[in-house]
Amino acid sequence: MSKQQDNLERKVSDARQGAHNTLGQDLSGKSAVEVAKTRSPKDMALWGLALASLIGATLVQYKLPGIWQPANDLWTRVGIIAALIVLVIICLALTNQGRSFKVLLKDASIELRRVTWPSKNETIQYTWQSLLVIGIVAVIVWLLDNLFNWLVGAFIG
């Protein structure tokens, strides 16, 4: 167990170092959230390019065939739309927020390795307990519904 814990700690350390290298900033004083909140002119330009590409991808279907003859082919339009969407993803990945998201995904994968998953027998036992409680609550709600229907019917006549 200790060896596995040491291995996880090493991976956490490697992820933090990778985050430091990826973000190009010192994370010792800042969290990934603080880094994601920082704005720079490069980020603004990338967000603008991503937004323009996304708008362009939505307009390709309607506007481009009237301007450019080869765009009358469906597969040409699909290819252009796919290329613009890939450009959007690349632009967003290069922003501070995109880099912080990659760090978040690395941290999440490390945390998932730390989870103690239930055994098959525990899963079956908890499933049956949940189904039993759901059934009991359903019967109680059904009885209350019938009671209220009877009371309303008695008052209304």
From TrEMBL:
Keywords assigned by UniProt, alphabetized: Cell membrane, Membrane, Protein transport, Translocation, Transmembrane, Transmembrane helix, Transport
Localization, UniProt: Membrane
Sequence ranges of Basic and acidic residues compositional bias: 1-14
A cellular-component GO term for this protein: plasma membrane
Parts of the chain that traverse the membrane: 44-62, 74-95, 126-144
Matching InterPro entries: SecE_bac, SecE_sf, Translocase_SecE/Sec61-g
GO molecular function annotation: protein transmembrane transporter activity
Pfam families found in the cross-reference section: SecE
GO BP terms: intracellular protein transmembrane transport; protein secretion; protein targeting; protein transport by the Sec complex
Cited function: Essential subunit of the Sec protein translocation channel SecYEG. Clamps together the 2 halves of SecY. May contact the channel plug during translocation.
Subunit structure of this chain's protein: Component of the Sec protein translocase complex. Heterotrimer consisting of SecY, SecE and SecG subunits. The heterotrimers can form oligomers, although 1 heterotrimer is thought to be able to translocate proteins. Interacts with the ribosome. Interacts with SecDF, and other proteins may be involved. Interacts with SecA.
PANTHER family (UniProt xref): PROTEIN TRANSLOCASE SUBUNIT SECE
Name of the protein in its database record: Protein translocase subunit SecE
